[in-house]
Design goal:
Blueprint lengths: L2 H14 L4 H7 L23 H21 L4 H6 L13 H25 L1
Helix pairs in contact: 1-3, 3-5
């Protein structure tokens, strides 16, 4: 997938999830003080040294979005707000809390949780 189209996809996802700039940058593995703004910039402009980590994060986040679409095809409220709801299966934390506090490992955990839930 072309990098600029990934920018559009992740920008759209972050908008649907109603993330702040700080939350967006955190999920992308960027410092909170980063001048990068997903609403104005392209991920093409980011440091190529971080491209592998960034692409991995984006892949998992887009996979989460796809899984949520399969889990809640008729319920956009759940599909787009699930990341903010506390979840007893995640020790009472919201998926967004897990992803922002634990970085790539948290994103992978939420992704695996969603894929496991789909297979039930």
């Amino acid at each position: 997938m072309e990098t600029d189209s990934r920018t559009k996809l992740i920008k759209n996802l972050f908008s649907l999830w109603q993330l702040t700039r700080s939350e967006s940058n955190n999920l992308l593995g960027l410092p909170e003080s980063s001048p990068f703004d997903i609403n104005k910039d392209s991920i093409i402009d980011l440091n190529p040294d971080s491209a592998s980590d960034l692409n991995e994060r984006i892949g998992y986040l887009l996979d989460c979005h796809q899984a949520l679409g399969l889990l809640f095809p008729e319920n956009p409220n759940m599909k787009y707000n699930w990341v903010r709801f506390n979840n007893r299966d995640l020790d009472g934390s919201s998926p967004l809390e897990i992803m922002t506090h634990h970085g790539i490992d948290g994103i992978k955990l939420v992704n695996h949780f969603l894929n496991f839930t789909l297979q039930r």
